[in-house]
C-alpha cells in the first residue's frame, strides 16, 4: 500500500480485503480496528462505515454492538452442547444458541483434548453443556471448528424422565417426556417399578439390553402423579437439568453464617427505607427512599436512595455457596415452587431486608435534578433497617387514598415523597424514550391442592413502574462507577435488531398496510412510533408481540455495547444479588473498587474469566426462561384438558406451510391448526404476506387475523393444544369453479384426519 501524502489519499481496501481481515482476526474487530489496519483516516472513515453497512445488508458480515464478524462465524468463546461422538470417537458439539433461520445449519465443533488438564476437572461427555474456546478449521474439513473445553456447565444426568404406564401382568412402559428422543418408549420389567403407579412421573435409568430387545429402564424415583399440577414444574427442572438440591457442604456453610455486624459499615438504620414487592415475595433484596433535595442549587430536585441486600458479605468467592450459585446462575420461578440460587438461610433470612430488623446493604444515593436527570451519585456500604414491608397493591392503594394500618403512618413522610421523586425521574425517562411494549404478563394462580385456579393478567400499577425506574437508575450508576474506576465488570447488554429481523418486521407491517421507515438509525423511538400507530386497533397485541420477536436477546457480557431496549449506553445488573449471579459479581466489583472491604472481586480476576462467567450465566438465564415457559404451557394445557369441544377467540400468531399457530385471548395459550383441517381446498403458504391461501377459493388466513376456534385435542405433558377453525378467512378474489366457495364444515373436519399435535414456540426477551 502506498505511503500517505498530503497530496493524495492511499488506495482504499477492497471489500474482499475487509472481509478477509474480519474473517482472520482472532480478537474483537470494529470500525476502529479495520481503520487502523488499513490506514483509513479522516473522511475515508465515512466510506468505511458505509462499506460495513453494505456488507451487513448483504449478509456477508454480522454485527454485535460495535464489533463485526463474518456472517455465521462463532466468537472465540462459545457455549456449546456436546451432541455425539464421530466414527473416530471424537466428541462433536454444536453452539447452544444458533439461529438456523438466519445462518442455516449449526456449525460443528470437534473437541480437542485440553493442553493442560486441571486436576479434578470432570471429563466432558455426550449430553454435556460446556464453554469452549474455538478456532476455525481449514475450508474443506469435515467439521467447521476445533474447540477446547474450559468449563463444563452441566453434566448430563444418567436418568430419563417419563410417564409410567402400568401393564396388568406387572411392570410397564416408560413414555418419554422428551419428544426429540429416538426411544419414545422403554420397557419397565416387573420388579423395576419402585412402587410407581400408573400415570406417575418418574425418573429412570437405562438398563443394558440386547441388540434385538426393546430398550428397557429401571425406575429410580417417583416424582409425583402427572395428574397433579405439582409435578408439572418437576418435568422442566429435570429436562433442563436445573440444579434443585443444594449440596451438603453448601447448606452447612449457609447454616454457619452469622448476622453481619456494623463493623466497616455506615449506620443507616435511621433512614426510613421501605421494600415494595409482590404480595407473595419471600426474599426482599431492594429498598427505596426519597426526599426533596434541600440544596438550593438543586431546587425542585430529589435525593433518591436505593439499598440492595449485601449478599457479597455472605457469599465469598470460591466458597461452596459461590460455586453452587454460579452453577445455578439465577433463581427459577414456577407457579408452585421456586428453585433458588441461594439457600433459604441466606436468601430468606440473613440477606432478606425484613422490616424493623438490621440488615447489611450496598446503597447508592442518587441526586436527581428537577428535569429528572441524575446529576451525581455515591455508593455506601451500610447497615440499614427497613421501616415497612409493602406490596405493590398496598403502596398504590395508599397513594390512591386508601391507606391501611401499615401505610397510614408513613403515607406523608415516606410514600408521597417516593411518588413525587418518580414523577420527576419520569420526565427524563420519557425524553430518553426506551422501548415501550404493551404486552400482558399472564399469571397462573394455583389452588391449595396444586391445580390451576385461574389464569389472569395482573394490573400494571404506577408502583411497579416506580420501583422499576429507581432500579434502572441504580444499575446505571453501578456501571458508571465501575467504568470510572477502570474496573472490569459484567454488563447487561441488548443489541439492536439485526437487518434480517427488520426486513421480516417490514413484511409483517406491510401485510396490515403499515410501512416501516427505512431512513435513519434504528432506535427504540422507531418501534414506539409503530406501536403508537396501532394503539387501540385490533392489531395492537399482535404488533406488540411481533416487535418483541424482532428484538435481539438481552444477555450478560464483559464487553459493553449498550442496552438498546432501555436506550442506555451503559447498564449493569446490581439490584437483585439474591436471585442473579451477575448482580453478585457487580457487588464484588464495587466493593473492591470503592475499598469497602476484603470480600470484593479478587484482584487477580481476569477479563477472560468474566467472559466465561457471562456466557455461563446467560445460558442459565435462557435455561430458566425455557423451563418457566414450558411449565406455564403444561399448566394451562392441564387447565384446558376438560374443556375439549369448547370454543375460544384468539389471534393467528404464526403461519407456516404446515398450518396456523393460534394464541387464545382468554389464557394466552398457544395452539396449532394443521393446514389439512382448514377446508377442502389446498392452502399454499405465502412467505411474503405471512399467510395461507386456498388455491381454489382464495380464502386467506393471515398473520394477526382474529379467529374463532374449537379445542379438539390436548396433550398436557407436552403443553400442546390442537384447534379447529370455526371462523372464515379473508377472500382476496372470487371463488373459482362456479359455486366454489368455502367447503362445508363436515368436509373440513374429515379431509385428512386429525394429525399429531405440534408444538412451536418462538419468543424473544429483553
From TrEMBL:
Segments of skewed composition (Basic residues): 748-766
EC number annotated for this UniProt entry: 3.1.13.1
UniProt subcellular location: Cytoplasm
Keyword Iron: no
Keyword Nuclease attributed: yes
Stretch list, region Disordered: 731-766
Alphabetic keyword roster: Cytoplasm, Exonuclease, Hydrolase, Nuclease, RNA-binding
Enzyme class: hydrolase
Occurrences of domain S1 motif (ranges): 645-726
Gene3D superfamilies: Nucleic acid-binding proteins
Role of this protein: 3'-5' exoribonuclease that releases 5'-nucleoside monophosphates and is involved in maturation of structured RNAs.
Family listed: Belongs to the RNR ribonuclease family. RNase R subfamily.
Name listed for the protein in its UniProt record: Ribonuclease R
Encoding gene per record: rnr
Amino acid at each position: 500500500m502506498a505511503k500517505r501524502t498530503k497530496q493524495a489519499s492511499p488506495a482504499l481496501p477492497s471489500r474482499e480485503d475487509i472481509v478477509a481481515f474480519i474473517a482472520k482476526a482472532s480478537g474483537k474487530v470494529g470500525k476502529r480496528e479495520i481503520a487502523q489496519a488499513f490506514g483509513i483516516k479522516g473522511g475515508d472513515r465515512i466510506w468505511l462505515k458505509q462499506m460495513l453497512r453494505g456488507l451487513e445488508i448483504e449478509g456477508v458480515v454480522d454485527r454485535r454492538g460495535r464489533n463485526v464478524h463474518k456472517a455465521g462465524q462463532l466468537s472465540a468463546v462459545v457455549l456449546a452442547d456436546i451432541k455425539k461422538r464421530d466414527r473416530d470417537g471424537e466428541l462433536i458439539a454444536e453452539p447452544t444458541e444458533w439461529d438456523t433461520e438466519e445462518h442455516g445449519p449449526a456449525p460443528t465443533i470437534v473437541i480437542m483434548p485440553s493442553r493442560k488438564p486441571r486436576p479434578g476437572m470432570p471429563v466432558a461427555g455426550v449430553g454435556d453443556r460446556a464453554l469452549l474456546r474455538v478456532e476455525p478449521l481449514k475450508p474443506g474439513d469435515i467439521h467447521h471448528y476445533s474447540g477446547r473445553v474450559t468449563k463444563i456447565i452441566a453434566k448430563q444426568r444418567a436418568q430419563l424422565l417419563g410417564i409410567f404406564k402400568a401393564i396388568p401382568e406387572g411392570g410397564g412402559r416408560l413414555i418419554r417426556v422428551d419428544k426429540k428422543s429416538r426411544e419414545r418408549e422403554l420397557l419397565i420389567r416387573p420388579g423395576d417399578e419402585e412402587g410407581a403407579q400408573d400415570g406417575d412421573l418418574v425418573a429412570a435409568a437405562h438398563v443394558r439390553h440386547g441388540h434385538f430387545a426393546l430398550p428397557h429402564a429401571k425406575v429410580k424415583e417417583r416424582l409425583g402423579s402427572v395428574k397433579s399440577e405439582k409435578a408439572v414444574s418437576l418435568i422442566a427442572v429435570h429436562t433442563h437439568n436445573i440444579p434443585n438440591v443444594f449440596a451438603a457442604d453448601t447448606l452447612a456453610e449457609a447454616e454457619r453464617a452469622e448476622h453481619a455486624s456494623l463493623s466497616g459499615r455506615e449506620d443507616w438504620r435511621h433512614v426510613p427505607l421501605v421494600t415494595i414487592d409482590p404480595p407473595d415475595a419471600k426474599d426482599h433484596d431492594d429498598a427505596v427512599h426519597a426526599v426533596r433535595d434541600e440544596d438550593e442549587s438543586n431546587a425542585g430536585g430529589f435525593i433518591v436512595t436505593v439499598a440492595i441486600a449485601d449478599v457479597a458479605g455472605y457469599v465469598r468467592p470460591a466458597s461452596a455457596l459461590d460455586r453452587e450459585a454460579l452453577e445455578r446462575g439465577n433463581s427459577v420461578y414456577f407457579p408452585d415452587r421456586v428453585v433458588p440460587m441461594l439457600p433459604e438461610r441466606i436468601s430468606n433470612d440473613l440477606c432478606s431486608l425484613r422490616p424493623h430488623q438490621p440488615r447489611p446493604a450496598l446503597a447508592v444515593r442518587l441526586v436527581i435534578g428537577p428535569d429528572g436527570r441524575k446529576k451525581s451519585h455515591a455508593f455506601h456500604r451500610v447497615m440499614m433497617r427497613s421501616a415497612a414491608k409493602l406490596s405493590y397493591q398496598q403502596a398504590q392503594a395508599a397513594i390512591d387514598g386508601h391507606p391501611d394500618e401499615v401505610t397510614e403512618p408513613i403515607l406523608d413522610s415516606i410514600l408521597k415523597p417516593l411518588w413525587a421523586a418518580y414523577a420527576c425521574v419520569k420526565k427524563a425517562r420519557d425524553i430518553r424514550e426506551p422501548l415501550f411494549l404493551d404486552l400482558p404478563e399472564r399469571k397462573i394462580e394455583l389452588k391449595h391442592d396444586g391445580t390451576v385456579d385461574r389464569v389472569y393478567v395482573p394490573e400494571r400499577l404506577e408502583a411497579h413502574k416506580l420501583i422499576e425506574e429507581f432500579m434502572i437508575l441504580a444499575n446505571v450508576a453501578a456501571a458508571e462507577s465501575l467504568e470510572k474506576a477502570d474496573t472490569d465488570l459484567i454488563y447487561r447488554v441488548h443489541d439492536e435488531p439485526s437487518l434480517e429481523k427488520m426486513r421480516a418486521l417490514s413484511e409483517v407491517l406491510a401485510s396490515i398496510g403499515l410501512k416501516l421507515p427505512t431512513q435513519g438509525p434504528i432506535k427504540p423511538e422507531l418501534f414506539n412510533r409503530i406501536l403508537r400507530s396501532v394503539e387501540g386497533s385490533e392489531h395492537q397485541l399482535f404488533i406488540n408481540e411481533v416487535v418483541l420477536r424482532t428484538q435481539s436477546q438481552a444477555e450478560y457480557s464483559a464487553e459493553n455495547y449498550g442496552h438498546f431496549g432501555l436506550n442506555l449506553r451503559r447498564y449493569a445488573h446490581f439490584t437483585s444479588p439474591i436471585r442473579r449471579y451477575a448482580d453478585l459479581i457487580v457487588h464484588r466489583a464495587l466493593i473492591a473498587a470503592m475499598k469497602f472491604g476484603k470480600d470484593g472481586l479478587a484482584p487477580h480476576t481476569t477479563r477472560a474469566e468474566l467472559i466465561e462467567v457471562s456466557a455461563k450465566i446467560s445460558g442459565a438465564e435462557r435455561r430458566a426462561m425455557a423451563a418457566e415457559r414450558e411449565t406455564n404451557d403444561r399448566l394451562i394445557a392441564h387447565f384446558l384438558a376438560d374443556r375439549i369441544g369448547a370454543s375460544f377467540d384468539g389471534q393467528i400468531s404464526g403461519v407456516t406451510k404446515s398450518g396456523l399457530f393460534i394464541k387464545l385471548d382468554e389464557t394466552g395459550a398457544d395452539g396449532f391448526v394443521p393446514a389439512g383441517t382448514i377446508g377442502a381446498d389446498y392452502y399454499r403458504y405465502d412467505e411474503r404476506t405471512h399467510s395461507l391461501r386456498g388455491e381454489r377459493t382464495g380464502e386467506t388466513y393471515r398473520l394477526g387475523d382474529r379467529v374463532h376456534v374449537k379445542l379438539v385435542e390436548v396433550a398436557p405433558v407436552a403443553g400442546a393444544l390442537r384447534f379447529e377453525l370455526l371462523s372464515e378467512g379473508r377472500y382476496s378474489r372470487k371463488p373459482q369453479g362456479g359455486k366454489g366457495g368455502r367447503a362445508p364444515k363436515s368436509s373440513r373436519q374429515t379431509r385428512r384426519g386429525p394429525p399429531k399435535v405440534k408444538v412451536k414456540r418462538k419468543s424473544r426477551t429483553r
